[in-house]
Amino acid sequence: MARKQKEEWKVYNSVFDNFTNRRVFTLSTQGYFHELRSTIGPGKEAIVFSAAKTSRDADGAIAVKIYRLETAGFKKMYDYLRVDPRFSKLGKTSVGDPRRRTIFSWTEREYRNLLLARDAGVRAPMPLAHKDNILLMEFIGHGFEASPLLKQARPHDPEDFAKKCFDMLEAWTRSGMVHGDLSEYNIINHDEEPIFIDFSHSAPLKAPNSRELLERDVQGLCTYFRKLGVECDAHSVMTRMIEAYKDEEK
Ligand SMILES: Nc1ncnc2c1ncn2[C@@H]1O[C@H](COP(=O)(O)OP(=O)(O)OP(=O)(O)O)[C@@H](O)[C@H]1O
Ligand SMILES: [Mg+2]
Which of these, 70, 83, 93, lies nearest to 19 by C-alpha position? Predict the structure, then answer.
């Protein structure tokens, strides 16, 4: 290992457990990326890093989202996953540590949701790979500079930006899915184009409680855009979403 890499390694070693450090190392030796660079988003459940694709910075970055294995939120994750028909087997297996099993499924679900989002025509980071508690995806930004969240970067044309967000939400709903955690904190303003992120809560609309999650997403977006002077009636947006979903069910 090069000296610089060794030094950086020490820093990450102190942040993560041995298991996670080994996974990061494996993914890097498998050629998914060269080295982790800096944290973009240290959240409660996960930390997102930028990582250099190769030893040449000109080749750009990918985003590496690492779920903390010690997260206290894993019980909530389990409750959300259990009602997702795609993960209903989770509670029935006793293989491995339940906490880890839940976090790995949570990571896998985000990967699968990102693939579905792209298929549905929703602008979201391209997922590249997942391994246990680590998700690799396209980096949204320029070079190593991540684009800001909508929360940090108010759109120049709120009306137009809101329209794009609701069109994407409609596409996602039409494909039978709900985001479940949509807000100005999980939308990136990339050169005035919305990019939805953080798809780990995303579930099929046929799962129980999904309607409430959709309502929450719609309410949240409307509240945000109304503050920017955009007319937004949550009730009529909800009607539009339900129509889109019904169309697809026919
Ligand atoms: N693909 C990406 N490209 C650039 N920046 C990203 C990307 N994904 C996430 N980020 C940044 O990292 C931050 C955290 O990401 P994200 O919202 O996915 O995780 P989180 O909210 O910490 O996790 P969770 O809610 O799942 O615990 C985001 O707010 C955003 O600033
Ligand atoms: Mg988030």
Answer: 70
